[in-house]
Amino acid sequence: KMIRKSKATDGTAAGQVGIKKKSKVPGVMITQFIETLPEGKSHPDFTRKPIALTIQEGKFAFFKAIVIGDPTPTVTWSRNNGDVSDTSRYQSKYDSPSNEHTFEMPNVAPDQADTYKCFATNEYGQAMVTVVLNVIEVGFKKNKAQKQAADAIEGDFKTVLKRKSKVHPKSEQPEKKEGEMDPKFWELLLSADKKDYERICAEFGVTDYRWMLKKLNEMKKEREEEQAQFVKSLSNLRPIQVNADGTASFEIDMDLIEQSSSIFLYKDGEMIPYTKELGDKLKHSLKKIGKKYIFSMRDLMPEDAGLYQLDVEDVNMFSTDFKIPMVDFLVKIQEVKAKEREDAIFECVLSNPFAKILWFGKNMPLEQGDKYDIEVSEDKLIHRLLVKDCMVADKGIYCACAGIKSCSAWLVIEADKDAQKGKKTARKTTRAGGSGQDLQKIAKEQQAKLEKEKEERKEQMKASEEAAPPPAAPTDTPVVAGSAASKPRKSAELQVKMNIDSDGTWFKDGKQLNSGAGITITKDGNSHELRIKSCSDDSSGIYQFTSGEHSTQGKVTVGDVPEFDPDDLHKFSKPVIVRAGQNAAFKMPFPPQESLEVNWFKDGTELKDGGGVKIVRERNHSRLLFRDCLRIDTGEIKIQLKNPFGAIEATSKLIVLDRPGPPEGPVKTVETTSSIIEIKWNPPKDDGGSAVTNYIIERQQTGQSLWTKLGDVSADKTSFRDRNVTHGKKYNYRIYAENPEGISDALETAESIMAGIMILAGPPGAPKVVSASKTCINLTWTPPEDDKGVPIIGYQVEKQKKDTNQWIPLNAVNEPIEDIKYAVKDITEGSEYEFRVTAINESGSGDPSPPSAMVCAKNPNMRPCFKDPEDFIVVRAGNSARIKICFEAEPPPQITWLKDDEKISAWINIINTEGTSQLVIPNSKRSDSAIYTIKAKNSVGEASFDIDLRVTDEPKVPGPVELEQTVHGKLVISWAPSPDQELDDRLYYMVSQHDSLNRVWKTIADRLFTNTYTASNILPGTEYHFRIYAKNDMGLSDPSPSPTWGTNINKVPVTSNGIISTEVSFERPPSILVPLKVHTPPKGYQLFMTCAVRGYPAPTVSWYLNDICINSDNNYYITNSFGVCSLYILRVRPKDSGEYKVVAVNSFGKAECSAKIFVRGKLYLRLLLYFCSL
C-alpha cells in the first residue's frame, strides 16, 4: 500500500523510548514513552476519532474526538499547512459530561481545506490521528476552478504525448553507455514483489544485490512522493497474465485523489489507445470496478510481448513485463467422461519445456490443493491436471494455457444411478480421461529434436566465427557506412566568370582541389568551372576560387529528400477508426534531419496546435492527437516532411463512428384512406460512418401524449404503410435511422395526418333541464339522429346568459363530455341561462343543437330537513357545550330551540348561519343536562329533532367494601354507592380481582347497576383482594379496595396437649433483595428500571415520585411479578426528573429503596442511582 510520507519530528523527549503501538481504532498512531507502564496507568488512545468532512464554504465545520488514558491526556489540534492559533477561525472545546473534545471552524473558508491532526498526550505516551477537511467553493469560484483545470490541461497536454518515463520506444532509445542499466530493469523492480527481485536481477545480469537494494529504496521513495500527488493508495498489484478466455490482463487497486485525472497506457514506452469496454474496435480496454482497474488485451499475438505501464497524468503507477514464450501444444487435452466420485485427468504435451502452465476450470484459475493435483514431468514437456473425487458440480469446460496458446475440453460427470437417495456413495479408486497416446514417447522424440536443433545452432555459430575475416588495419581514409553508394547521386557545377583571361585555383574548406576523384576542373576563356560528378555528404563544404588578388566563395550543401520507412508508411496508411467521444492518435517516425519541417493536414487544411488538436514534434517522430472526437472530425489526415531538398507526404484517414443524422424530411403523405396511411421520407445526409441498418417508426394519436412503436423497416426502404388506423382520427409520426453505433434524432411530421376525409356529426337534441339550484343546473340531451357513420366520442356544452348574444363553451373540444348529461356549476345565483350541445367525432365538432328553455339559477322550495344530526352528546362539567345542527330548507326557515319542551334561558347562546344552527352553553353544569329540541319552520313545512345532552364528570370513589362468604366457594361483595349515583342515571360499577396465585388484577364484573356482586371459584388457602370502580360516560373513578380475604381468615388455634413443640413461622417483614436499578441503558426517550422485594405476607408495593404516589398514573406502566417490581417510562419528559422510591409494606414492617433521575434538555438523559434499604 502506498502512503504519502511527510516530515515529522519525534515526540519523545530525551531519555524516553519511542515504542510504536497499534490502536484498536484504525488510523490511530500511538507512541509509548516508557517500556513498562505502572500498574493502573495507560497511554492515551482514541475511542472515537474525528471523521473526514466535506462541507460547503460558509458553513459550520467541526471535528469531534473522545480520548482515554490515565492520567487524563491533554488534547491539541494542528494542521499540515498553516497554524490554528487564530481563535476567530479555530476554537477547541471540551464537554466534560460526554468527554468529547471538539475542534470548531465557524464560517469555514476554502483556504482552511487541509489535513488536520489531533494529538492526545500524557506522561506515558502520545496518540495521534489525522483527518481531512474538504471545502466546496461556490459561485463564480467554480468557473475559476474550471478555468484553472483547463489551463492545466492546456499546459500539460504536451506531457501526455511527450513520454516522461525512462523507458523509451525502440525507435527512440538513446545509445546505451557502457555500465548503464536498462531503465526497464528499475521500472520492473519498482512494481515487483520482493520474491521476484532475484529473478529480475538474473534476467538483467545484476549481481550486486546490496547496491541494487540501496538504489531501489531511493527510487521507491521518489516514486511514492510523485504518486502521492494523484493517488491516495495503491495495492493488489497483479502482474499481467493470460486468462482462460484467451485474453491477457493485469489488475491494480488505486484510489484516485481526483477522479477526473487522466489515465494512460504504454507498451514499451509508446502510448496505446484503449476503450472503457473490451469492444470489437480496439484491442485494449481498461475497466474500472470500484477502486479496481483491470487492463485487458484480446487477440493475443507474439508482438504483444513487452513492458506495459499504467500512468496517472505523467506519473507511473505500475509496470509489468508480458513475456510470450515460443511454445505450442503437440498434444492437446481431450474430453473426459467420468463417473461420480471418480478421478479425472487431463494431459497435454508442449513443443518446448515450460515450468508451469495455467489451468482453468469453468473460467476460474485452478491451484494445487485438496481438489486438484497439477503435475509436470522432469523434461517439463508433459503437464497433467488431476480432478479428484469428481462431483456433478465439477462438470464444465477445462482449459490449459501456455503463453498465448491454449486448448480446452469438456469434463462430463455421469451421476451414480445406484446411489441411495440422500446418501453419499463411496469414492472410487479409478481414473478417467487421459490423452489416449503414449505421451512419454512423444515427449522423448520432442526432447531429441530440441537437442538436435541446439547442436545445429552451435555448429552454425562456430562456423560463422571461423569464417569471419581478421580485423582491418587502421587507415587515414574515412569509412562511410550505409548504402548511400547504391542511391543515384546528382552532379553539381560551380562556375566563375572573370572580366579578363586569367588563371585561378579552386579550394574546398581551405584545401586546394585538382581534377580527379570525381572532380573535374575546366577553363574556357574567361570562364572557370568545377564539376562534381556524383555528390555525396563529403561534397558539402565551402568552395573558393582565387585568381591573383581576387577571390570568391560559395557553400555547397548535399542532402537527401526526406523519406519514410516502408513499414512505418504502411502502418500509418491504415485508417484510424474511433467512436465519437474517444481520442484518436497518429504517429509517424522518420530519420532525424537538419532543417526538417513537419506539418499535419486534414482534408488539405493545415492543422495547428490548440483546442482539441495537439501536435508534438520530436527529433525522430511526430504525433497528432484529436481529443474527444466528433463525427465532423472524419477526413483525410496527411503528414508532410519538408527540407531544402524536397518534400514527402504520407496519407491516412480518420473515421469517427457515431449514430446517424436524422432522416431527411419533410415527411410526405403518399396515401390516406379510412384504413391506411402511407408516409415517405429520405435517407439521412450523414450515416455516422456506418451504413444505416434500418428505420424505426413511432406513432402518436393527436390529443394523446403516448408514442407507440409501430415497427422497423430495412434500410433500402424509405416508406411505411400504417394499416392500424381509425377513420377520422389524426396521427403524428416519428422516424429514426439506426446504425451499429446507435439511433438518430427523430424526423417528425410537421402536421397531423388524418385517416380518410373529415366527416362531422349532425346536431344532438335540444338540452332539457333536469333540476336547477343556485349552484348547479343539471342537463340531459339525446344523441344526433345521424352520426354520418363516424362514432361520436363526446359532446361540448355551451351556455348563453339572458340578454347577451355570446355562447361560452363549458368544456374544450379535446376534453369531450362522454355522457349525455352534464352538471353546469359555472353559474351565478339569480341569473337566467339557455344551453346548447355539439357532438364531437374524430373529425371535430359538428353542428350545435337547438337551445334549451331559459332556466333561472335558484334553489327550489323545500321543506326543512336535518342532515346527519347527533342525538346524544356528553360534555364534562365546566367545559362549554356545543350542539351543532345542519339543515336544508328553501326558503330559509325560522329556528327555535327548547329545553325539556320549555324555552331556553337567556344565557344560552344561539348562533344561526346559512344551513347551520348552533346552541352554545359557555360554562356547563350538571343541571344543564336535558333534552334539547330544535325546530325549523318555513312556508313549505316544519321539522324538529331532539338531542340528549349530558353534562357530567368523572365519578367519585364508591364507599367501603364488605366481604361475606355464605356458601363454600362463593363470596358476596357489597359496597356503599358512589355519591354520584343519584346524580347520574348512566353510572355503573366494575369489580377487579387479585389473588396470591396470579398476582395480576383482572376484571371479573362490569356494567353492574347494583351494589353487590357474588364472586365464584373462591379457593381456600388463597389470598384475595377486590377493587370496586364507578364508571360513567366520562371515564373511571379511583378504586375502592376491599379488605383481604384469604389464608388467615377464621384461623382455628391448635392445642399441643402439653407437648412442647417448636413452630416454624414463614412470616417476615419486607426486605429489598435487589435494589432499584436501570435494567437497560436508556435509548432516546425510553427508561426501564426494576427491583426485587420479599416478605410474608406478600408486601404491598407502592411507587413514589418526589413522595407522590404514581401507582395510578397512566404515564407509567407498573408491574409486580412474584416480587420483581418494574416501572417503564415510554417517553421520558423533563418533568419525570426526581427521586423514584419503591415502598414495600406488610403487617410486620416496611422496606424501601430509591433512585434519582435527572433529565437534561431533549437529547441528554443522565442517571444517578443510589440505593438505600431499611
UniProtKB/TrEMBL annotation:
Annotated Polar residues bias: 80-100
InterPro entries documented for this protein: FN3_dom, FN3_sf, Ig-like_dom, Ig-like_dom_sf, Ig-like_fold, Ig_I-set, Ig_sub, Ig_sub2
SUPFAM superfamilies per the UniProt record, alphabetical: Fibronectin type III, Immunoglobulin
Coiled coil: 209-236
Keyword Protease: no
Domain Fibronectin type-III: 662-757, 763-860, 957-1050
Basic and acidic residues: bias regions: 441-465
Repeat among keywords: yes
Residue span of region Disordered: 80-101, 421-493
Highest taxon of the lineage: Eukaryota
Gene Ontology CC entries for this record: M band
Segments forming domain Ig-like: 44-130, 860-952, 1069-1158
Gene Ontology terms describing biological process: sarcomere organization
SMART domains registered for this protein in UniProt: FN3, IG, IGc2
Family matches, as CDD domains: FN3, Ig
Keyword terms of this UniProt record: Coiled coil, Immunoglobulin domain, Repeat
Similarity comment: Belongs to the protein kinase superfamily. CAMK Ser/Thr protein kinase family.
Designated name of the protein: Immunoglobulin-like and fibronectin type III domain-containing protein 1
Organism this protein belongs to: Maylandia zebra
